[in-house]
Amino acid sequence: MYSSSSVSKRLILIYVLAIQLLLINSELSLNTTNDYLNHTCLVSQGKYKTGSEYEKLIEHIMKMFYINSIRGYDLFGDSTFTAVLQCRGDSYGTKCRDCFVTALAALRRRCPWYKGRIIWYDQCLLSMDSKYSVGQIDYDNNFCMSNAKKVVEDRSEYIKVWNILVDDLTELAITGDNSTLYSVGEKRYKGDMVYGMVQCAKDLSRKACQECLWYNSFHFQDCVNYFRGARVVGRSCTFRFEFYPFIAKQ
């Protein structure tokens, strides 16, 4: 028979192991979550044919992107083709490369033979365009995803808090020595902490980055206001805020 002390020790051990697993899963959720978010096939740009020069160019550029994805970003642009790989600011090295491989395979499956196409994952976006678009803000391919749960009290104060947070993070991303056009931060709302992130594609100027973020924060107010977390995502810029930390600490 087991003594009560041995049973207690076993229960304590199980409890400790459960806490450890919880902490490990929490860390993994920050570092490895890479959910599919959205995609768009740019139908108006038409399709290319198998064996065409356009297909050969895409294949060549995607091989280059695979090699360079370890850096977290890559860009190609000429008069007939623009491609961008942009990984989230905390997703570099193998995490960026894995996201690129996943995004490329999914894009080929979801938008076969389309000259223009974009796909977004939690940790990266991959964009292809049949014209020169380097440094230009994409105002058309943006979307918003909000959490189901809403703020139920003092909504005006809540809107004020997240607006200040987005403005502060935008300023941080485009000033000083920050060449990544990326920033993260947090701000207190009552007894909670609101965590935020902003990021622009590196081909944008700092002024264009600011304009893109301002544009999206204004045009998606109905999707963002009152919700306990949301993200506005686009080809050129994105911002996100949550009531829990979602960015891996550096």
TrEMBL record:
<dbReference type="Pfam" id="PF01657">
    <property type="entry name" value="Stress-antifung"/>
</dbReference>
<feature type="domain" description="Gnk2-homologous">
    <location>
        <begin position="139"/>
        <end position="246"/>
    </location>
</feature>
<keyword id="KW-0677">Repeat</keyword>
<comment type="similarity">
    <text>Belongs to the cysteine-rich repeat secretory protein family.</text>
</comment>
<dbReference type="InterPro" id="IPR038408">
    <property type="entry name" value="GNK2_sf"/>
</dbReference>
<feature type="signal peptide">
    <location>
        <begin position="1"/>
        <end position="29"/>
    </location>
</feature>
<keyword id="KW-0964">Secreted</keyword>
<protein>
    <recommendedName>
        <fullName>Gnk2-homologous domain-containing protein</fullName>
    </recommendedName>
</protein>
<feature type="domain" description="Gnk2-homologous">
    <location>
        <begin position="36"/>
        <end position="133"/>
    </location>
</feature>
<keyword id="KW-0732">Signal</keyword>
<dbReference type="InterPro" id="IPR050581">
    <property type="entry name" value="CRR_secretory_protein"/>
</dbReference>
<dbReference type="InterPro" id="IPR002902">
    <property type="entry name" value="GNK2"/>
</dbReference>
